Amino acid sequence: MLDIQISDTKGARPRATGRSAVAAVTLGIFTVMTAELLPVGLLTPAAADLGVSEGTAALMVTVPGLVAALAAPLVTARAAGADRRTLLVAFLLLAAAANLVSALAGHLATVLAARVLLGVAIGGFWALAGGLAPRLVPSAAVGRATALIFGGVSAASVLGVPAATLVTEQAGWRWAFAATGALGLLAALALRALLPRLPGTGTRAALETSGATGGGLRKLLALPRRNQRVRAGLLLTLTLVTGHFLAYSFVRPLLTDHSKIPAPLLGALLLGYGVAGVAGNFLAGARAARSPRRTLTAIAAALGAVLLAAFLAGDSAPAGTGLLLLWGLAHGGVSVALQSWFMAAAPDDVETATGLNVSVFCLAIALGALLGGLLADAYSLTSVLLAGAALALAACPVAALSGRNDQP
User: Fold this and answer.
1) Phi, psi (deg, nearest 5) at residue 95
2) Is 343 in contact with 291 (CB distance < 8 Å)?
3) SS (H, E, C) the chain
4) Cα(first)–Cα(last) distance of the chain, in Å?
5) How far is it, in rounded angstroms, from Cα 277 to Cα 284?
6) Residue 332 and residue 282: Cα distance in Å, rounded?
7) Are 402 and 313 a contacting pair, CB within 8 Å?
8) Domains of the chain as residue ranges with CATH
9) What's the predicted TM-score (pTM) here?
10) Block means of pLDDT (10 residues each) for the chain, length 408 residues?
């Protein structure tokens, strides 16, 4: 059970149960990842209001992804002795401020400056929160607690973005940013109330595990060099996540301009996408624990096929609706399947492998939005579907052939 008492290291009165502390961290990760992906659901109205193209507006996704990929290892290395609770609350407050500034911004430059700050908050929060489970629950519950924490990442893409789209449809894109900022404040209060003090000081071995010393950094860089399956997993993360966000960054204009779906229906359709994604997460999670290689091969094939079908379907609203739901079902299993891959690839060094995956994941989000924007502006909107399908299908042989002799 996760429901155990935890307290700070100085013997103060217990502050919360393990379950509520893990839930607070999960809410925090959900909040920062929803903030990162928020522009996906409001790209068209935000671009029109700010007077830029949709391809240029996609920089709102690219910028925080790039900054987060750089911030994650740097924050871990520089925060060795700091209290984790204090840092996590500070990162959530920074994210809340960045979203509120974006809600009030009159120019894209101001929004992008705020998104730089958001990127620092995303990278810092994710880097520190990802390894907290062993400090919050007993060893027998660490796996479940870690899965729940990282479930916040999946929930952001399959539920956070559709919810933001509904807010945009009802009240405008600025209110979506404002609501996410308010959620950041709520998450910060929850963390302050439910987490114990978590000092960062400890043994040198513990610091090296977290990457806080030079040895930890060398360990981080050495793992993919000596572990072929970790290298393959990072390549899978790069191809699958980049391919998905090449197209998903433009899901709103794709649905309205390509599939001819009326704008008032977008919020409900993206919510359906989210529900399908949650189902995909549970379906893939059970299979990935037993066979990460086969599960990721199937996911890559399904994702590539759906994006290719969407490219070929043309201006058919029924086809666009059905394919959107299948898209959610396929992508919903990506995060949990990749996590299972890295756990199987490096069972004695899961934290380091997961840290590498986090950095590449954030980089791939940024790269997908950037490449998608370039393609949409230089060629056509539908070119992002074709490019995304190509990357997803390219991941199939990587998943199918990597470690096939010793990984199911």
Assistant:
1) -65, -40
2) no
3) CCCCEECCCCCCCCCEEHHHHHHHHHHHHHHHHHHHHHHHHCHHHHHHHHCCCHHHHCHHHHHHHHHHHHHHHHHHHHCCCCCHHHHHHHHHHHHHHHHHHHHHCCCHHHHHHHHHHHHHHHHHHHHHHCCCHHHHCCHHHHHHHHHHHHHHHHHHHHHHHHHHHHHHHHHCHHHHHHHHHHHHHHHHHHHHHHCCCCCCCCCHHHHHHHCCCHHHHHHHHHHHHHCHHHHHHHHHHHHHHHHHHHHHCCHHHHHHHHCCCCHHHHHHHHHHHHHHHHHHHHHHHHHHHHCHHHHHHHHHHHHHHHHHHHHHHCCCHHHHHHHHHHHHHHHCCHHHHHHHHHHHHCCCCHHHHHHHHHHHHHHHHHHHHHHHHHHHHHCCCCHHHHHHHHHHHHHHHHHHHCCCCCCC
4) 29
5) 10
6) 8
7) no
8) 14-212 (1.20.1250.20), 219-403 (1.20.1250.20)
9) 0.74
10) 39 54 91 89 88 87 87 72 87 96 93 95 84 77 72 76 82 93 95 85 43 54 86 94 92 87 82 84 78 92 96 86 93 85 80 76 86 89 94 94 64
Per the structure block, which two tokens stand in for 279?
């189902």
What six digits make up the tokens of 105? 């911004």
Structure tokens at 256: 């309205």
| Six-digit token string for 18 | 């393990």
Enter the tokens of residue 277.
């994604």
